[in-house]
UniProtKB/TrEMBL annotation:
GO terms for cellular component: cytoplasm. The keyword ATP-binding does not apply. The lineage of its organism: Eukaryota, Viridiplantae, Streptophyta, Embryophyta, Tracheophyta. It comes from the Eukaryota. This is PUM-HD domain-containing protein. Keywords: Cytoplasm, Repeat, RNA-binding, Translation regulation. Pumilio repeats lie at residues 151-188. Residues 1-253 form the PUM-HD domain. GO terms for molecular function: mRNA binding. SMART domains: Pumilio. Pfam families: PUF (PF00806). One of its GO terms (biological process) is post-transcriptional regulation of gene expression.
Amino acid sequence: MAYLLTSDPDYFLAIARNKNGSHRLQKLIGKSDDADNLFFLAIFRRFLHIMTDKYASYVAVRGMQVFDDKKKELMYEHILPHALRLACDKHGHIALNEVITDLDHPFYRDHLLDLVALNALLLSYDAYGNYVVQHVLTLYDLRCTYNIAVSLLGYCVELSFDKCGSYIVEKLLETEESMVLVVEELLECEGGRLMRLARKETGSFVVIKALRVMQEMNRVDLFRGLVQKLMPFRHLLRRPCGNTTIAAIIESGC
């Protein structure tokens, strides 16, 4: 059965792209070594087409979960040079996130995370790539998180004005090393621009989170610096963000 399904690469791709076909293939993968050899070769022949398809991508991800180590390594080797293309694809970014989640090989995991961190600026401005950056930050790999923060130096304020970008900045505020870099950039921002950020819905969440985490981590110097910078505009910052106003936090800090 595996031979018949995989003997024609285009036929295999057509099956994998079908919702029911994809589901059936996923069930067949992992049943026997001989069949897996055929499925592996079929996936490899049409790798990018499969990884960037809504349903076919699940077939490749399933393979990377159950194939033997040698096959997995060959697939990881193939992913690395195409990772950015996958990250910026409508369906490829979902498949890439699945691969990153399941990747338990230290060498390839580090290489893939480093690739995302190095290209974090490009990905953060991409409609799909930003979800890959967000996903990597949820892994709480401190080295990778710090490297992403370094890649985004000078752009955190600008990203905070955007809905997806603000999610990335908020996640950077969840670890001390990257938090400091973000807050220092906020402090370097002109008072008027920081006020506009604090008044924008997406930006207000970033500013509130920055103030809160600095209080929780007892970074009095950074907290007071932001409070002083926002104080002249506190009358403009009374609009609630959830159940909190930035003005209330500022005044409590004083």
